[in-house]
Amino acid sequence: MNKTLIYSMLAVSLLMVSCDPSEERDVLSGAITADQLNITATPQVVDGKNSNYIDLNSDGVGSLSSWFYGNGTTTSTKTTVQMVLAGKREIVFTGLNHDGTYIKKTITVQVDTLINVAPEWGILCGEGDKNWVWDNTLSAVWGNGGYKGNTSPGWWTVALADIDGQATGEGAGAKMTFSVNGSSLTKIKSDGSTVKGSFAFDMSAITEDDNKDVWAKGKLTTKNVTVLCGKSPNEGNGPVYSYDILKLDDQKMVLSYPEPGAGSWGTAWFWMFRAE
Question: Are 41 and 94 found together in one domain?
Fold first, then answer.
C-alpha cells in the first residue's frame, strides 16, 4: 500500500473521530439539578421599595422553561411579570431537561408596593384565597328583575332556603373560593363536591343606565365553572359565564346577567353574595 493511500486513510479516521456524534449526544442528554440552576427573579425597585414588577431570567439554562408566578404563567426565558399581591410571594420555575426529566426551583420574592394593580384582586381573593357565600342577611339571594333598573331581584325572587330547588347542593352550606393561584374559581357544593375553573375581571367594562349613571362597575367572566346557581332559566337553564359586577367590596358582591337582547328593564338575573 503506497504512502499516499495510508495518509488518506488516517486523515479520514481523524475526521471521523473529531465528528463523533456521541459527544453531542452526551451534551443533549445531560440533566441538571435544581441546585445547578442559574436563574433569578428580581423585583424592580421603585421609590426605594420592591415593586410587584418582577424581572425573570433563565437565559442559558439550556432547558425548556416555564415560570409560574401565582396569577399567571410564562414560558419566556427573560421577561418581566406583574404580581398582584404584596408580601412574601413564591415564584416556581420548571425546566425540562433534554433527557425528559423535570427540574423545579422555588424563589421567594418580597413585594412591598403594588403598582397598576386592580384592587379587585385583593377584594375577591383576600391574601390569596377568599370564600364567598350567599348573602343570608337578605330575603332574596337570587332571581330576576329589570336590566339597568333593578340592582337586586325585583320580580321573581328566591330565598336562600329555596336555592337547592333550583341548583341542588348550591344553597345553604355551599361556597365559592376565588384564588390568585392560577386565577382559579372553585365552587364547593354543600355535599363537599367541587367544580373548578378560572375567572377574570374587567373593571373598564362599565354599563350605564338610561340616566348615564354607572349601573355596572365591571364584568366578571368564568371558565369551566359558574357561580352558585349560575344558570339562565329562560334559556333552558343554560350555564352563565359572564356577569355584570354591580357591587364589589370586601364584604358584598352583587352580580347580574341580562338575557340576550334585553334593553332597559328587560329581563336580567341577579346573584347576591357576601364574604364568608
Answer: yes
Cβ contact 115:81 at 8 Å: no
Nearest C-alpha neighbor of 256 from the set 219, 225, 228: 219
pLDDT in tens, 155-208: 999 999 999 999 999 999 999 999 999 999 999 999 999 999 999 999 999 999
**Whether residues 145 and 271 fall in one domain:** yes
Give residue 238's identity as a one-letter amino acid code.
G
Please report which confidence band the pLDDT of residue 97 belongs to, taking 50, 70 and 90 as the band edges. confident
What distances in angstroms separate CA 227 from CA 39, 201, 255, 260, one per listed residue? Answer: 39, 14, 10, 19
Contact 228, 174 (CB under 8 A): yes
Whether residues 198 and 106 share a domain: the answer is no
Domain that holds residue 223: 120-275
Q: What is the dihedral of CA 179, 237, 150, 243, to 10 degrees?
A: 30
Same domain, 99 and 127: no
Nearest in space to 107 (alpha carbons), one of 183, 43, 59, 47: 43
In tens, the pLDDT along 23-76 reads 333 333 467 888 888 899 999 999 999 999 999 999 878 778 899 999 999 999
In a domain, 255, yes or no: yes
Number of domains in the chain: 2
Instruction: Tell whether 140 is covered by a domain.
Output: yes
- Calculate the CA 216 to chain-centre distance: 23
Do both 131 and 198 map to the same domain?
yes
Mean pLDDT of 142-150: 98
Q: Do 133 and 254 share a domain, yes or no? A: yes
Q: What are phi and psi of 138, to 5 degrees?
A: -105, 150
Q: Which helix (H) or strand (E) holds 104?
A: strand 102-111
229 and 182 in a common domain: yes
Query: 246, 268, 270: which is closest to 258 by C-alpha?
Result: 268
